[in-house]
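User: Fold this; tokens only.

Assistant: Input:
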Amino acid sequence: MKHISLLGATGSIGTQTLDVIRKHPDHFKLVSMSVGRNIDLALKQVHEFLPNLVSVQTREDYDKLIHDVPSHTKVVYGEEGLVEVATDPKSETLVNAVLGSVGLSPTLAAIKERKAIAIANKETLVTAGHLVTTAAKEFGVPLLPVDSEHSAIFQALNGEKITEVEKLILTASGGSFRERSRNDLKDVTVREALNHPNWSMGAKITIDSATMMNKGLEVIEARWLFDIPYEKIDVVLHKESIIHSMVEYIDGSVIAQLGTPDMRVPIQYALTYPNRLESISNERLNLWELGTLHFSKLDLERYRCMAFAYEAGKIGGTMPTVLNAANEIAVAYFLDNKLSFLQIEAKIEQALERHHAISKPTLEDIVAVDAETRAFIHSSMK
């Protein structure tokens, strides 16, 4: 029985993680969790999974929840609550499925407590990859990827030598607007942007998929997860999302991981590694039903956020922190209909151009730059 702490239980990855736990009650037990603002869903989860500890975002949410949870369940809130869930002594594994850089501090705290980290919160590695990977090595903690692309690479590297890798090849669906030119994007709506053709994801990640920032963040994440330079990380457009990613080796061999577009598969593998359990779904990949798979080269002029990500990653230091923070706020304004789709990348570019990167930032530096970048984007909207 593996005991799980889950950050972000009411989000897309969080609810699918609970699907996996529900499917395999003899293998997994949820002992602590943090939730978002959906208190009604949180209450249902608490009464089903009976965790010992629950963290909510605010004191107001605490007041809503505290009187309706089982008597044995402790309720906490805020950043301190996230850290308390992440470091719960009753768990061996932390699933970090929160959205945004808020996941950084609890992840570092969990590493120090020698928890295995199943990481779906890419912003943690984007903003502070050097701190997270250094801490993981120091405390002997595995970083197990939950993103489908990184899980695919993780599996394709299994048993191989990292020194014999020619390149990592991330696949990208192209998002909601993959069939449109840049000229067609000027007046797209939030509703259109949220209509992803392949995956069921949260709103912010779906918008990031449409701009391709999600893939840009994954490139930076891959650099830290697999200790590979950016020059050896490629992205190819693959609209079916059947090949989740590939690894090319120096002898020309390419190993790919394939599967149906179901996030519960990589989630489950992160929880069971190095073993596997039966599928949570009855759906199987039948290649003869697909017939044809399509691939095309990535155009960095078409997807400018990808270009920003490569540039920020190569500069390093606090530049990826700026990239992520600016994107989070710009996407929030777009979702609130206060910014056009193409203005998302314009705001990110403004933030990157004005920033002078700190080459080896401390956690305090990262927190300060993150806050300053968010304030800049807010002020630029006035």
